[in-house]
């Protein structure tokens, strides 16, 4: 058993040694093969390296050759450019030299001409001095002969010419003026007739008093109240005066402001209808009347805009209410709102005939007197107040100007002249306005006083309700030509200083009477 074990161990050892020897031999053999392969690969790599180095050198040589060729070519091109630039510079230099020589030559020519002109100027001045001297000598001789100086001779000559041609000048002026007046009158009548035949409105004259009807005379005592407290309350709250007289079943409200009179009238109507009249109820009735009047003003302003075709939405509501206030405003008895509607309508029609701006004429005519709606509460004349109001509400300048244009002698725009003419037509037509006796007499006296203020006027009379002034002059002081000028001066002064509706005709009368008695 032990022997077998030994044999097995020996066999194992022998087999392991032989296997180790075999593996060692194989390992050596494979190592030799690997070395041979590595040497072979290294040799191939060296060969390829040599080939690559050879190709690289060849390529570098080619690139160097091409670069040298390009460099030589660029050098040649640069040389050619330089040569061409040098030639251009040489050409420019030659041209400049040629121009300089031409300029020098021209400068010399100009200097020569200047010298010659200076010499000629001196000669001309010398000749002028000689001519002036000769004229002075001749003038002195003429003055010695005529025994008068130059100014006296001119004045005498002008007087002689004026005297000789006075009649012809006067007749010529009259003829020209007559022709112009006839032509303009024909054209104006045609335009106005076309405009007026298309529009007609009612005429009503307002007054500064308002009547309130009473159911019976007992109501007068109730309106007056105990110790006059009711009537005092009404007058204080409305700013009007209540006149209670012997007129049966009627009391009168007097006041300068139509709106205040209307508030008082409506409040009294409400109190009379209600029957309760005491200070507290009076305050309530007046407050209700003011609210009603405010609505009425707004409605009146909107109706005026509708009549003229102006969109209500384009006008500020506050301005519409201000326009409606003119319903209770009068001018010489003429309702201001109705007058403004008439002016806007007539101005639009005239503008259509003349080719003016119809919209500006209509709108300007409606708002031309807007200042009268608040002139009781503000200082200043109504044209300026109206201009400021329209400016405040964003109206353009040409529209705001209509408030001033209708009171200017010569409006600067055709629309202003149209509105001025329409205003005169509306205010001057028969029945539109009326004056008190005191105002009428005062206007007649002012016309006569203005016409009599000129030198040479003997007497002056205002006739035809102040629409004509006849001026009698002294014939020994005023000749025919001066009479013509006097009529112009009187008319101009009346336009500048007086206010009047329509137009005033000025007639200057020069009369010479020669009386002799046969005995």
TrEMBL record:
Keyword Cell wall biogenesis/degradation: no
SUPFAM superfamilies in the cross-refs: Eukaryotic type KH-domain (KH-domain type I), HD-domain/PDEase-like
Entry GO MF terms: hydrolase activity; RNA binding; RNA endonuclease activity
One record GO biological process: mRNA catabolic process
InterPro entries: HD/PDEase_dom, HD_domain, HDIG_dom, KH_dom, KH_dom_type_1, KH_dom_type_1_sf, Ribonuclease_Y, RNase_Y_N
Domain of life: Bacteria
Record key words, sorted: Coiled coil, Endonuclease, Hydrolase, Nuclease, RNA-binding
Enzyme class: hydrolase
Membership in a protein family: Belongs to the RNase Y family.
Biological role: Endoribonuclease that initiates mRNA decay.
Protein's UniProt name: Ribonuclease Y
Species in which this protein is naturally found: Candidatus Uhrbacteria bacterium GW2011_GWF2_39_13
Protein's gene: rny
């Amino acid at each position: 058993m032990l022997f077998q074990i030994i044999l097995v161990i020996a066999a194992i050892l022998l087999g392991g040694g032989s296997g180790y020897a075999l593996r060692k031999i194989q390992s050596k053999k494979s190592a030799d093969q690997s070395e041979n392969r590595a040497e072979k690969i290294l040799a191939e790599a060296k060969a390829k390296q040599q080939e690559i180095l050879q190709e690289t050198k060849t390529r570098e040589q080619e690139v160097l050759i091409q670069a040298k060729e390009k460099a030589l070519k660029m050098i040649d091109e640069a040389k050619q450019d330089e040569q061409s630039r040098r030639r251009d510079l040489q050409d420019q230099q030659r041209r400049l030299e040629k121009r300089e020589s031409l300029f020098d030559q021209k400068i010399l020519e100009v200097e020569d001409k200047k010298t010659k002109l200076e010499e000629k100027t001196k000669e001309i001045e010398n000749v002028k001095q000689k001519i002036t001297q000769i004229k002075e000598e001749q003038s002195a001789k003429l003055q010695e002969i005529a025994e008068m100086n130059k100014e006296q001779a001119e004045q005498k000559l002008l007087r002689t010419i004026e005297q000789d041609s006075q009649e012809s000048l006067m007749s010529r002026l009259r003829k020209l003026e007559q022709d112009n007046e006839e032509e303009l009158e024909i054209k104006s009548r045609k335009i106005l007739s076309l405009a007026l035949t298309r529009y007609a409105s009612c005429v009503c004259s307002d007054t500064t008093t308002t009547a309130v009807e009473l159911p019976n005379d007992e109501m007068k005592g109730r309106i007056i109240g105990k110790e006059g407290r009711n009537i005092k309350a009404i007058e204080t709250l409305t700013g009007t005066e209540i006149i209670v007289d012997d007129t049966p079943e009627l009391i009168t409200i007097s006041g300068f402001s139509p709106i205040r009179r209307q508030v008082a009238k409506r409040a009294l109507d409400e109190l009379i209808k209600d029957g309760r009249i005491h200070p507290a109820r009076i305050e309530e009735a007046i407050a209700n009347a003011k609210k009603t009047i405010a609505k009425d003003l707004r409605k009146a302003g909107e109706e005026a805009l509708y009549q003229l075709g102006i969109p209500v939405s384009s006008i500020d509501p506050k301005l519409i209410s201000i326009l409606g206030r003119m319903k209770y405003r009068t001018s010489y008895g003429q309702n201001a709102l109705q007058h403004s509607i008439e002016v806007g309508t007539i101005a639009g029609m005239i503008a259509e005939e003349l080719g003016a701006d119809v919209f500006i004429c209509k709108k300007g005519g409606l708002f031309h007197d807007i200042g009268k709606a608040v002139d009781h509460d503000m200082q200043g004349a109504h044209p300026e107040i109206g201009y400021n109001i329209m400016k405040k509400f964003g109206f353009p300048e040409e529209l705001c100007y209509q408030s001033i244009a209708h009171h200017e002698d010569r409006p600067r725009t055709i629309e202003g002249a149209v509105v001025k003419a329409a205003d005169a037509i509306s205010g001057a037509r028969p029945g539109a306005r009326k004056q008190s006796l005191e105002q009428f007499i005062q206007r007649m006296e002012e016309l006569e006083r203005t016409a009599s203020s000129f030198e040479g006027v003997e007497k002056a009379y205002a006739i035809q309700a102040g629409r004509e002034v006849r001026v009698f002059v002294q014939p020994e002081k005023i000749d025919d030509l001066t009479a013509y000028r006097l009529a112009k001066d009187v008319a101009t002064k009346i336009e500048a200083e007086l206010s009047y509706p329509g137009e005033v005709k000025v007639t200057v009368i020069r009369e010479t009477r020669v009386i002799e008695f046969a005995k």
